[in-house]
Amino acid sequence: MILKSLSLINYKNFTSKTFEFDAKINCFVGNNGVGKTNILDAIYHLSFGKSYFNPVTSQNINHNADFFVIDGIYDKSEREEKVVISAKKGQKKVIKRNAKMYERFADHIGFLPLVIISPADRDLITEGSDMRRKFIDGVISQSDKNYLSNLLSYSKVLSQRNALLKYFAANNTFDQDTLSVYNEQLVTYGQPIFEKRKEFLVHFAPIFQEQYKAISGEAEQVSLTYQSALHDMPLEHLLTNALAKDRMLQYTSVGIHKDDLAFEINGYPVKKFGSQGQQKTYLIALKLAQFDFIKKESGVNPILLLDDIFDKLDENRVTHIIQLVNTNSFGQLFISDTHPERTEGVVKKIHQSYELFHLGHQE
Ligand SMILES: Nc1ncnc2c1ncn2[C@@H]1O[C@H](COP(=O)(O)OP(=O)(O)OP(=O)(O)O)[C@@H](O)[C@H]1O
């Protein structure tokens, strides 16, 4: 799958800009703040229907405008696919594929597989468990529509159950029958999510470990473990056992929305005990494992976005990563960097076609 061209209107700092891309490697170079990351984000937007960096749609619209349009033309399975995302202030965002509007955003997820590696990934280590759940969900959802649909339904029922618990507390009342209906629905959607996450980790963790070893060349033992109370008992029983607590807290304290991933290095949490370099390598290995996994599941080479990659790694490691992707029967690569010579030096080494886009400040 190849992104052939991209047009931006009023997307962040771009008022109007069109790019024609190389089928292999595309590099965006220029000073800080010229919009390199914004271009990668626009490409991300076309795959996921949202920004990787700023989930507030209205803030992705250029400050001086009241709408944006992102227009991408792809080659996929020897067909041309035109994907257009537009947003107007105060209105719902629209995604169209070949001029046909999607009724549900979820139907588009997975159609244009993509992996991004960015300095913002550090949130996966430093922030709360929701970031790590989003990561697993993002990987699985790109290849499993059922999973995504269960997730959306689960989250809807969860809000309803939480609202009911609040209502009980506010009105000093309780109705087990209504609560049981929500419990059943949480189990219907939540239990398969747990099973899928568990199965996913069995396949994903070894791929991750291989990637870590390949990038670091070090003897450190890394592990990635799925933590969930559902390992101990089915969700149905967890909900029953937590009833008194949930009523007191006025929200649902157990379920797959509390799951987490433990990131460890030599048996200790990466967050507390990993060096800066180890943390960066850990994150890159996670993302490259994501690339491998999605590729295997979807049969399509995902687009790979490398944002500010030298922020994370030295030149040797970057060369290594680009080569890894290369030997993996190459997809299409988009790189952003402040130093044109550095990027070109690395890219030249792998003897693929490439295009360098020099960006200046936009008017
Ligand atoms: N909604 C918006 N309207 C106008 N400009 C915006 C908007 N959102 C972000 N920007 C501008 O985009 C610029 C940042 O772009 P971006 O993060 O892509 O830069 P970059 O070239 O990747 O820089 P760096 O090398 O520092 O990472 C900033 O100047 C910021 O003010």
UniProtKB/TrEMBL annotation:
Compartments, as annotated in UniProt = Cytoplasm
Q: Name one GO cellular component term.
A: cytoplasm
Which residues take part in binding ATP? 30-37
UniProt keywords, alphabetically: ATP-binding, Cytoplasm, DNA damage, DNA repair, DNA replication, DNA-binding, Nucleotide-binding, SOS response
| Record domain RecF/RecN/SMC N-terminal: where | 3-341
GO biological process assignments: DNA replication; DNA synthesis involved in DNA repair; double-strand break repair; SOS response
One MF term in the entry's GO annotations:
ATP binding
Query: What is the first-listed, main subcellular location in coarse terms?
Result: cytoplasm
Q: Does the keyword Transit peptide apply?
A: no
Q: What is the protein's known function?
A: The RecF protein is involved in DNA metabolism; it is required for DNA replication and normal SOS inducibility. RecF binds preferentially to single-stranded, linear DNA. It also seems to bind ATP.
Q: Which NCBIfam families match?
A: recf
> Which family does the record claim for this protein?
Belongs to the RecF family.
This protein is called DNA replication and repair protein RecF
Designated gene of the protein: recF
